[in-house]
Amino acid sequence: YIYFKTRRNSDLPERFPYESTIKLVSHQCDVNDYLLTCFKQIKLYNGKNTWTASFLGLPSFVFTNDIDNITHILKNSHNYGKGPSIQYRLKGLLGDGIFNSDGDVWYHHRKTSANLFNMNVFKSSVMNAFNKHGDEVIQIIANKNGK
């Protein structure tokens, strides 16, 4: 779980300016593995499952894999919004949807999209798309082979 924070200090010591940004960009293809490595290093370094990091041009991020922290954040999500600064920066990429909204707008998007994340609906949608496109691929391959 990632939460945006406005404080500028970081639990990751930087040896040179924007080291966190450079490291994150250099791990763009394996960002999840990189963040997992960071979690392990911070846990060894200070015994915590939560840490902050700053990236060029953005407020500090708070990263946590502590279940108590995640539960608290999800139950009190109204206290942990992205805010106008992050929304402005991400609007071109994410628009005004669920991933870039706060408060009532976020709640409306969440309630509207909740049915999409129902496992049965998700499975049937994925299977329908897989079957449709799978049949198209089989037909293309068959046509290429002259069958």
Quick structural overview:
The chain is mainly alpha-helical. It contains six helices and three strands. It has helices at 19-26, 31-46, 67-75, 83-94, 103-113, 119-144; strands at residues 2-4, 50-53, 61-64.
H-E order: EHHEEHHHH
**SS strand fraction:** 5-15%
The helical percent reads 55-70%
Low-confidence stretches: 1-10
Assign the structural class, choosing from mainly alpha, mainly beta, alpha/beta, alpha+beta, or little secondary structure.
mainly alpha
User: What is the tally of helical segments?
Assistant: 6
- On the 0 to 100 scale, the average pLDDT is 76
Radius of gyration, whole Å: 21 Å
- Spatial strand order of the main sheet: 1-3-2
Largest sheet report: 3 strands, antiparallel
Number of strands: 3
Q: What separation lies between the terminal Cα atoms?
A: 50 Å
Structure write-up:
This protein is mainly alpha-helical and 147 residues long. The protein contains six helices and three strands; from the N terminus they run βααββαααα. The chain has helices spanning 19-26, 31-46, 67-75, 83-94, 103-113, 119-144; strands at residues 2-4, 50-53, 61-64. It has a three-stranded antiparallel sheet with strand order 1-3-2. Strand 2 and strand 3 form a beta hairpin. The longest helix is centred in the last third of the chain and has 26 residues, at 119-144. It starts with a strand and ends with a helix. Residues 1-10 have low confidence and may be disordered.
